[in-house]
Design the sequence.
């Protein structure tokens, strides 16, 4: 008697969970793939523009999980994504070396910009040498917001401190605030606390709450920001939809996909520059 | 959802993207409350009527679990449903089902703990009567739950409030995928990170309006039920 009740209870709970998606819009039977990508591709609005074009061409519904680069690669490592689309070449090469990815394709680039309050308390506006600007920020102990989330932008920020001859782990003080959040949240925090912050240009252009923030340093070659895409290795993760995933990658690096990326503009300003043909990128 | 518009313009214009998000939020949270009620009410009532060693410990843990951080619940379900986790073969991660499971985990302790308290209070009134009639344990649970049904609505609403408000669990297990697992709360988090604070706060007000409407409906149903039950 009790067993039958237990059985009915279990069945009811199972049915309850299973029935939920029948009310929701369920695309899972479609041709769809999961792409783990960075907050910058989402926050910049690129995917909102690009994915409908990709779907029209390939018929593939792309489900984007937007995370920092480090987290996106970990999602790939667990086999929870079919494709990873990120921006930290060193971390991507490590991913490949572990056998987690099949092959890396360069897709596009833009650059990082050093953002700060218009009042510019550290006085770095217009500098061409980002190393010098960061050194001044450190010496003056001007507030600086770090992503602190192993994202591509965080990795780039750490590399820039290093290139400036600063050991940020040792030299950081209360002025250096590691918030462990996405790009938009870091910009919100910088704006609300009169602080400096490193951002990718795409997110910055699309960002709506600029208020007292402005680009203070840009154009240093070391602020280059390359995006790469990889299929998660089906040999390691048998659930990876390798054909659909590769079709999506092929679209992005095709002349048509590259042109679509170049055409994404906000107020006439281009956010990403395609460079799939640059094998060294 | 397009950039320069406000949430109210989206509502007035009948923006299909917004309606899909609202619909998914309701489906996920209400399903989670239904599942949690199926588990939590019988469990809470059973706990109220049964005496065994360790019972007090379970009650303390159950009450503490009402404060389970959504991020922790989300992470636990994530690791369970991940392709490299024990239930990975079902392919449930980044689906609405995963979100229902995570929210069920969050809501069940609330409903169970409140149901236990409600039924235990009622049990104090009915104990002698039920004992005199020699009612069997299962019937006792059923009788008391039925008699407490109007008070239990509050437990369900508390659970619904928790589910509708949380973002930490569903953003981890759902992935905030546009058109598939994006809900009101994850959309608010996204618009905040895009720096579109007016749209984010507008969506927040739409969410609050919906939650108030549901609470009003539940309240009305309870009043009507009490009236007819005499």
Sequence:
């Amino acid at each position: 008697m009790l067993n039958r009740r237990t059985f009915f209870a279990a069945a009811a709970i199972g049915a309850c969970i299973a029935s939920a998606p029948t009310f929701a819009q369920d695309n899972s039977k479609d041709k769809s793939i999961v792409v783990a990508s960075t907050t910058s591709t989402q926050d910049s609005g690129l995917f909102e523009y690009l994915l409908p074009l990709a779907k029209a061409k390939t018929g593939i519904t792309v489900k984007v999980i937007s995370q920092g680069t480090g987290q996106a690669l970990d999602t790939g490592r667990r086999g929870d994504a079919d494709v990873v689309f990120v921006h930290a070449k060193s971390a991507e090469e490590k991913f490949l070396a572990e056998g987690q990815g099949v092959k890396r394709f360069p897709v596009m680039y833009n650059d990082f910009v050093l953002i700060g309050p218009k009042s510019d308390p550290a006085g770095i506006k217009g500098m061409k040498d980002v190393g010098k600007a960061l050194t001044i920020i450190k010496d003056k102990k001007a507030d600086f917001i770090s992503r602190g989330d192993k994202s591509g932008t965080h990795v780039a920020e750490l590399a820039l401190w290093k290139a400036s001859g600063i050991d940020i782990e040792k030299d950081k003080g209360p002025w250096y605030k590691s918030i462990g959040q996405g790009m938009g949240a870091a910009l919100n925090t910088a704006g609300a606390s009169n602080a400096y912050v490193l951002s990718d240009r795409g997110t910055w252009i699309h960002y709506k709450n600029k208020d007292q923030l402005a680009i203070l340093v840009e154009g240093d070659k070391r602020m280059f920001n390359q995006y790469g895409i990889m299929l998660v290795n089906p040999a390691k993760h048998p659930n990876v939809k390798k054909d659909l995933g590769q079709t999506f990658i092929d679209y992005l690096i095709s002349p048509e996909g590259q042109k679509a990326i170049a055409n994404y503009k906000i107020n006439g300003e281009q956010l990403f520059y395609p460079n799939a043909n640059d094998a060294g990128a | 959802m397009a950039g320069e518009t406000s949430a109210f313009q989206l509502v007035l214009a009948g923006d299909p993207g917004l309606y899909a998000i609202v619909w998914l939020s309701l489906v996920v949270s209400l399903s989670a409350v239904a599942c949690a009620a199926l588990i939590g009410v019988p469990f809470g009532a059973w706990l109220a009527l049964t005496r065994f060693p360790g019972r007090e410990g379970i009650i303390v843990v159950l009450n503490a679990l009402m404060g389970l951080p959504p991020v922790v619940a989300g992470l636990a379900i994530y690791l369970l449903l991940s392709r490299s986790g024990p239930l990975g073969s079902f392919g449930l991660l980044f689906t609405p089902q995963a979100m229902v499971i995570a929210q069920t985990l969050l809501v069940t302790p609330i409903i169970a703990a409140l149901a236990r308290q409600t039924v235990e209070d009622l049990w104090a009134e009915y104990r002698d009567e039920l004992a005199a009639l020699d009612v069997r344990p299962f019937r006792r649970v059923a009788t008391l739950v039925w008699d407490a049904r109007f008070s239990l609505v509050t437990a369900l609403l508390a659970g619904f409030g928790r589910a509708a408000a949380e973002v930490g669990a569903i953003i981890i297990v759902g992935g905030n995928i546009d058109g598939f697992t994006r809900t009101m709360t994850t959309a608010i988090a996204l618009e905040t990170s895009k720096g579109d604070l007016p749209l984010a706060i507008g969506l927040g007000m739409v969410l609050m309006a919906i939650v108030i409407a549901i609470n009003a409906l539940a309240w009305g149903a309870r009043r009507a039920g009490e009236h007819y039950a005499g």
Observations:
- The interface with chain B takes residues 5, 9, 12-13, 16-21, 23-28, 34, 39, 42-43, 45, 47-48, 51, 63-66, 78-80, 181-185, 187-188, 206-210, 237, 239 of chain A (CB under 8 Å).
- Chain A has a mean pLDDT of 91.
